[in-house]
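Dear Dr. H.,

I hope your travels went smoothly. While you were away I took the liberty of generating a structure for the chain from your last submission, since the lab meeting agenda had it listed for discussion. I wanted you to have the full record in hand beforehand rather than looking at slides cold. The sequence, exactly as received, is reproduced here:
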Amino acid sequence: MDKKKVDRMVYVNRMDKHGNSVINENNNRNKTTKLTVFSCIIFTLFLFLRHRMILRKTYEEQKMSLFSETGFYYSFYEEIVNSPTNIFSTIINKMIFDERTEYPDTINSISRFNIYQEICLGITYRLLREMFFRTKYFLSLLYSIQFEKHSFSEAILRNIDYKSRYFNTFISPFNFYYYVINTILGIGMGFLCGTSTYISNGSYISGLVCMGFLFGNFQLRLLSRISSLPLRENFALPIIWINNLILISIFKEKKKMNKKWALFFITSLIQLEFWQFSVFIIATQMVSAFIIYLLGYEHNVFELKLVNMIKIHLLSLACSYLLHFFNNYILFSLAMSVGISIFLSILVTRIFLNRGKNTEFSFFNSFFTGIFSLVIFILINKITSPFSNGDTHVYDMLKSLLFGNEFNNFDTMIYKMGGSEFSWITKQQLKMIHNSGVLYFFLPNIFFILTMVVIDLIKSIYSLNKSYSGTEYFKPNSSMLTYETKCSDDEVSLYSSSSRSSIYSSSTSSSPKSTTMSVNDWKTCNEYLIEQDYSVLKKTDKKDAVYMPLNISNENATYELQETKLETYILYFFIQTIFFCILAVIISRLRVLAIPYISIFAALLASKSYLLFLKNYYKDVYLTIFNKRSNEYSNIRTSKVKRGNFVVKMISNLLFLSLVLFMLSISFLRFPLSELKSGLISENNSSPSKSRLVDWINTNLPDGTPILADMVVSSTLRLMTNAKIVTHPQYEHIKIRERTQFIYSISACIPIKELYETMEKIYKTEYLLLSIYRCATPNNIDGTITVVDVTEYLDNIKHRCNNQENIFQRTCWRIQLDNNSRYFELVYRNAQYSIYRRIGRTEISIDLIKSNNENDVLNNYSQFPYNRKLLDWSESWKPWIVNNCIENDKFCPQNIVDYARMIIDIYNLIDVSKLIYEKAISLYPNNGYVIYNYAEFLDYDFGGNHESIQKYYNKSINILGRISISEFGLDKTGVNPGFALKMIIGFILYNEQTTGRNMKNVISSLELIIENKTIKEIALNLDKLDKNDVIEYLNDNIVDINYDMCLRNLAYNICMISSYLKSIEIESKEILTKQKKYPNWLINKIYSRLWKVSNLIDPNNACIVKYWSLFNNNVNKGNLDYLYSFLLG
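The corresponding predicted structure, in token form, is as follows:
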């Protein structure tokens, strides 16, 4: 054969000793690395900006904004960061021997919870803080020694103090936590784009399209719940994505991979430590790989990798078991039983069926292995079921979702309560995913891969049948000649065609006759080897070289294409994605697992290499079906390989370019602009009620006081106070589930005496803290599950109600209203929370105990006269307000009127609310907060006459003359400077709505605004400060969460005042001209600076958006304005 002709036909690619394409693989890695780094930077910056408003809050408000489990996990970080003792003493005394979290029990929190990330971050933060202050001290000493002049030394120290202030502003404990988590998630999302590039053999376009799809689904917590920072999945998901990429690369490459196996073990262990649900994800990994093994893909080669993967996962589970101090949840987890059953089934098959030898794929062996693994799995779970109860609620929830409400129990109902996160994925969520455009490409690609699996399965069955009938699977052409190789045996090594670094591989198992030459001797032996039945490369574009195994004989022989199959790493990724999609459909919250992989799978269609793979695969199927293989290649000669003509190539390239541009436009142009238009704030659960509750507990109760509360409030108590708690949101332990049921029985009809005795004898707690939302029935128009629905599934039937009780007849209200069964005293209340003290037995009269025993036996709650009790001031409200509120609550007037407001909002009890408002007015006749809220009540709810409403509005405004910034805090007027701005704008709007805009109203309004000291301070002095100094000043002097004056509300009120002044200038020029007290230039200066400050604090607040056109030539805020605000606001 002519060597030149052969070289023209064959694209010779350099191979390493394991048969991998060195050039292509290195090129793939380099491109993957570049795209990953680029994507990491983009996503991290985006996440930093997306919720940055939380960084502008005070540290206390930042902590208070955390909700339920997020606050619970953060509390462990807080303990390490702010503990007065050393780090290790804190870990031992407060975590390993934790007396606060499940009082009266002492538990090992490190064993029970996934808090290693909080421990690591807390230690890191303390070390950085210590390093900073030591450096500061060293510099102070150095400058003191070197510079003797006091003025210069003072200037140096002032500069050092500024650095300290800068450190505390941007690297506070919460801000450090924020930056770390967002960086981790940004890196993880970058690895998702890198995964797309890696699978598509180095396609940058595929990675960019994946990035666009990820951005397109980043809305309303659809793709990520990063708005709830401390959630376990925010730490674990990036590790899971990296772990999967490592596993894909292991499946793809065929060389020794000890380093990758080590990284795979480390990432598997980390994800187990970071998220309790990781055991289920690891189980899906093993099952996905096991399915590939059972289907026979690269049978012998893949078996070794599968066994290695299972060994590493079992090792990581064992290490996690040790790190969690022998937590049975890990030992008896699904991942452990799945791994053991698969490993034993493969081992038994190899020993008894294959007799310890590597054999060809056999459907019988595969079927036996699958059935045997299932039997072992069932036996393991049967044996361990008495000891494994940590995840039974998960299986109960799955049964309830899959098989109907008849499988509902308390655990399933509490997960479904109030929302859709633990129910089936909603139509709205599916619509958002559809609007991103990702499904247009994901579903066809899934269809392509699924079809390939079916075809490959049919091929395998057909080939095995031929093999069993005595026919060779790869039958050479009859005209094929045999040549004697001139290469030594050492130069030829067995080589599976599946090891090529292409997107697809050859047959089910490697042919023992297929060989390749060593790299060093290719030049001397390729002419001889190519004349025999060895795989060579059909030359295509070098950037997308596709390996086409050919059977070649002499020049007159035919050339037959061998059967091709899907690569195992693509099939693995396909099965894993299907698993995650199924989980996401069943449990909506698990969409965070599915959507990233959906985006990757859709983006693969933007890869030219992947499209060529699809084309060649289905072309091969077509040729096989219609028996055109021989004719197709009969004219191929070693002297020449036919190429497609130029026109066909041009059309193909244009089609590919059109598809790429279409996918890029779909992915990026579908970006949800709502993310740019939002308030740039994460989930915010801080409130005046929560702040006042924390302040009262820290002021009035000793440290270490045990308090019984629901899991949500308990998390806040653990984070913000030194109290001990009984329950918490980590629901995996059966003891916590029992305690949670007891808490919910208070929302039902547990006898008051039983509640008293259980608190006394079992939980040893004196105080009971109830949220008003645990004793309310919100409108259930859309079928949302409420707390009342959950209580109907209490295990203790005696604690359930009989569905005839009104909400005010349930235990949570009776312990307040039923004075004849006074086992509890209401010692504190605000709008959302109430605290009851369990009265000591020496304080309860014998007559009350006897009478209450009779009532408790009957437990006839439906006969309780709640209507009379609610309107009885002396019996129901006076004991709280007179005996406790006035005596020990510094926010007593604010709490009374806020509670009256809540009575209307939740229960719509106007008469009860009116009673409480009037008592507040009589007790606090000169409190501006009380008077203004009563005026709003008369105006919006009660419908009082105009004179009465005007009287109370005027009275509340007159009090503002006694308020200045120096009086910030609590004073007899009951109003802080920030809330005063809300009062001003409310008063102005009321006057304009009732009497119109006239000279009197305008002058009165201008006087209220311009003469207000807070307005003067903001408009005249803050203009000289930068943004950080403005925010710091406002937080220190004006903002007070106790008055609902967070920065966002302050920005809104400032904007409303600014917009009002601007509207006067535009619409009432004649009135402004007639009045001489306030010149136009002064009005213009004030509203311009107020607008600037409001835009500086919160550029997307509702007022800014609504009145943007007033300040921008009647042009509404556009997308470019939102983009500018997002990037630089």
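Two observations you may find useful: The longest strand covers residues 824-829. DSSP finds 51 helices and 13 strands in the chain.

With kind regards,
E. W.
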